[in-house]
Amino acid sequence: VPHFAAVLERMYAACAADAACREAFPELEADLYEAITRLEGAPLIVPMTDTGKYAGGTFAINAADMSYALYRALSSSTFLPVYPLLVQEMKAGNTTVMAAMVEALSGGTTNGIFNLATYNGMLCYDEATYANREAYERAAQPYSVSLWGVGYEMAHCDTWPVPSATLEEIEPVVSSIPTMILHGEFDHQTPP
């Protein structure tokens, strides 16, 4: 949550620094939290055209889904430029835009771009032994509960069939070799 929140802060600042964005989306931060909070009490039912993938032809978006969708959208070069507009349309309850977002973001786990088993194996191997839910919740405490939908991703690691990295393996590398590290301004998954 802290990395996600920090990137959102950069997003709000970038919009506020741009005259056109500031004028079009003057309350971007408040709008984002209002949109997520509204879904806590009443999920948004979105009509979907693919009834094979979405039973009954609908998808119910709750607060946790929206928070996760916003998290995923920050990783997308497609969504990043229209992020403020996405927030505005979320707040307005625009089911057409929300259906397009659901379809675009759910495709990442089914079309070969993102392999969930590989991701879980890497996450559980690299981090599970050295992270815990209590530490996550302490780190998340200062931030809006609306962002907690991203959640603690390692609950399944107790039963995931991978060993854990040793302390030796996760020790930071020290070297005298000059190294340049490139980082995306809105990268919340691998912050500096």
What does this molecule look like?
The longest helix has 16 residues, at 2-17. Strands 1-2 form a two-stranded antiparallel sheet. With 192 residues, the chain is mainly α. The protein is globular and about 50 Å long. It contains nine helices and two strands, in the order H-H-H-E-E-H-H-H-H-H-H. Helix 3 (28-41) runs antiparallel to helix 4 (63-73). The chain has helices at 2-17, 19-24, 28-41, 63-73, 83-92, 95-106, 116-127, 133-140, 167-170, and strands at 44-47, 58-61.
What features would you highlight for this structure?
mainly alpha; 9 helices; two-stranded antiparallel sheet; 192 residues
Strand order of the largest sheet: 1-2
Counting H and I runs of at least 4 residues, what is the number of helices?
A: 9
Extract low-pLDDT stretches.
none
Q: Can you write the helix and strand succession as a string? A: HHHEEHHHHHH
Structural class, from helix and strand content? mainly alpha
**Topology, number of strands:** 2
Q: Kindly state the percentage of residues in helix.
A: 40-55%
